[in-house]
Fold:
Amino acid sequence: METDLVQSLTKLVLTFNSKILITMKKNIIICLSILLFVSSGCEKLLIEDNKGGISNEELYSSVDGFNTLVTSSYAQLRTLYGNSPILDLAGTDIYREGRVNGGPLYTYETINAATGAVFNFYRDCYRAIQVTNATLNYIDLPPLSASQKQRISGEIKFLRAFYHFILMEQFGGIAINTEYTNSPRTNIPRASLSDSFNFVISEMEASLNDLPETSEPGRINKTVVNHYLSKVYLTRAWDLGAEADFTKSISYADKVLASKGTISLPYNKVWDPFNDNNSEFIFSVQYNKASLANELTSGNDQYTLFSVFSGSGAGQIKRIVDSYLPAHHVHASFQQNDSRYYTNFMLTTWQDYFSFYPNSKGSGVIQNYYPVIWDPNKTEITSEDIAEWDAYVAANGGKASGYLAFPVWAGNSEAHREKYDKNGYGNTDRRVPPFRKFDSPQNGFNSTQSNTASIRSIVLARLAETYFLKAEALIGLGQFSQAKDLIQQVINRPENKLVPSGADLSNALEGANTKTAALEGYLIETAKEMLGEYNGRWQMLRRTKMLGTSLEKFNSDFKRDGIKWQEKWSLRPIPEQAIELNDAMDVVKDQNPGW
Structure:
C-alpha cells in the first residue's frame, strides 16, 4: 500500500494544471533561495508572474495547499540523493573511477572553490532549508489539529537540521538559516563549527518531543531522529575532540536498538527488491511508479553506478553509468562463504539482464559469467577451469560455447591488476561483475533504456548502520573489544554464511589494540556491509581522520597518478559564488583552510 508521503508526492508530480503547483514553482523553487547563488538560467524565473493569482497566505491556509509545502520539504531528498550523490562516493577508499570520468572529486588535485558538484550540493541544501523554513512559517495558517501541527513541526524541524548537518559534514561550520523570506538573503554569517553542531543537536532533540515512535515508511519518527542524533554526536566527538559525545552517541544508538530490536533479517532479504521498506530500514527516500512524472527519467539512478558496461539496452541489459567501481580490495575482503558478496554482485548475467528475477519474460541465455578465484596462489586459468565453467553455464540454462567468462581474482590482487588493469585482459568493458544490490526489476524494461528509472527506495539509514555508529563510538572511547563484539552481531546475521557449516566469517577488528588498527578494521567491515549505500563513506573517512591514510593505502586512482594527500582536502571549499554574494562572509576569513 502506498504511504501518505508517496501519495502526496504523486499528487505533487501529476497535478500540473493546478494553481497550487504554479504558485509552488514561484514561491518554493524561486523566491526561497538563501543567497543569490542561483545560476543565470534561473534569473528570468525571479520575475515570473504569479499566474495562479493567489497569495501565499491564501494558498497555505488550506490543508491541501499547506501539504504541498510539507511534501516539498521531503521531496528535496530526491534532489539531493536521486541522482548520484558524488560528494558521498567519489574520492574514497572503496570506489575507483570508472570509464565515465568523474572529474576532480576522484583525485582531488583540481578541486577548487568553483567546482560544479560542490556548488550544486551547497545550493541544493540551502534550497531545501528554505523550503522547510517556509513550511514552519505557514504552519499556523491551515486548520490542522493540535496533534497534526505538532507532528508536522517535529518532522520539518528535523529535516531542516538534517539539511544543515549534511552541509556540515562537507564544509565544517556553516551559515545557519532559520528565517523564511520572500526575497534572497545576502547577509548570513558563517557560524563556528561548535555553534553549527549546537544548532543541529538542539533542533533534532527538540523535534523528538513532537514525533511518534513509529510511522509509515519515509516519514520522520523518533527512531529516525535518534539514529541521526547518534551520528551527529559521533561526528562532533571526532571533530571537536569531545570524548563525552562518544557516550552521548552510544546512548542515542541504544534508543534505536531498543526500538528496532536485534539484527534479524538475512542480508539478501534486506535488499530483496520485492521486500522494499522492510523492518531494517530506518529512513529512506521514497519512490514508486505512480509518483514518477516519467518512468524513464524520474526515478533514481542508484542501480547504475557501481558496475562497468556489460551490454546495450537494446540487448535488454540494464543501463550502467560506470562511475564508482568497487575497488578490488573490497572484493578481496569477502570470504568465499559470505552470502553478502553474492547479494551485492551479479556473477551470472543473462541475455536479458532481468531474467535473474522472478516473473521475468526475457531470455534466460547466459551472456557473461564471473567465476570468482578465491585461491590466493592461483595466477593462471587452466583448461580444467574452463571445462568447469562450461559445465556450470550449461547446467544453468546457458550454452557452453556462447558466453564470455571474466574471472574475478578475489584472492590475488596482483593477479587481478595484471590481468585487467595493466594488460586489459579480455573485454575490459565487462571485466567486473555487475552490482545488483539496488536493481529495480519492477521497472526493469525502463532500467535497460535509462539511467534514472529505479523505483526502489533510497535507504539513507538502516539498523545495521546504527550498530556500526555505536561500534565507532566505542572505538573512540578505546573499547575495541566491545566494538568488535557489536560488529560481530551484524556479521552473524541469519544466513550470512552461504555454507552454514563452513568457516565462521572473519571480523577485521579481531586483535585490534590501537585506535588506528580498530578503525582500519571498522572501515573494512562497513565496506562489506554497506557497499553502495548513501550513508556517507567520504564523511565516515573524514570524521574518523582516516581519509588521507585510506586514500593513499587503497585508492587505485591515487596510486595510478602518484597523488600525495593534502590536509586541506579534509573539507570542501566553500563555493566562491556563495561567499562573493553574501555580505556577511569574507573571501579569506570564511574560506576553509588551504582553499
The first helix runs from residue 4 to 14.
